[in-house]
Amino acid sequence: MGDLITSVQHREGIGTPLGFVGVLFVAMQTLPPMHSAISANLAQKVITHLHDVLLEASLVPAGIAHLERHEINDRLIQARDFDLGVTGPPLRASLPRVADGFVEIGGGVALCCLLFGFRWWAPFLAGFGWLWSHSLLRKSSVHMAWEDPTVVEEMRHVNYAYNLAVRAPAAKEIRMFGLGDWTVDRYFSRRKKMVELLIKARALRKIPITIATVAIVGGNVAVFWALADAASNGSVSLGAVT
Questions:
Q1: pLDDT digits (tens, 9 = 90+) for 50-75
Q2: The pTM of the whole model exceeds 0.85
Q3: Is residue 184 within 8 Å of 144, Cβ to Cβ?
């Protein structure tokens, strides 16, 4: 794009840069659907692999004593709820988003490297705040929230209340004694409490989000101000800035 602008400014031939821009435009339109299809296929393979791992972990050890350990049971519940899409989007839906995230990271790194052509400090200033924000906000990610001890413990109670309310043997007994409404209310209150704990675990901390915002905004303002100043005094051409 910069070469095309430079060619137009200098009234030179625009065939080659315009053709290159056209090729890039076509690639931008055709690659995303291919990217989504490949990500979906990869998600199915990963799901199959994870199912095999869970079966092996559950069936290979002799007996069932290992399945009675609460830490293993918690892990199995997390895996089941994740696979069913209860605790978040299933892998077949989330993996394409994960792949898009890696594409954005790769694009960000490439753009930071491109800034070496302007000033040696520009990529460090622009990239530092961006990378630092990932470190500052990692504790608010989804998988970290589901690992929170309070969320894990409440999830165990929610799972028990759910089984008590809907599994045939238990549900029949409690309804026989007129405890159906109590059981449903118990599950509702437990589930609501678990959601509240999850929201609290994922809440963005005030100080980290403030520092991350200042770092990102400050770095970008400094770099773009320097670019605008260089373009205005003519030390950098409009094509190079683009």
A1: 888 888 888 877 877 777 777 777 77
A2: no
A3: no
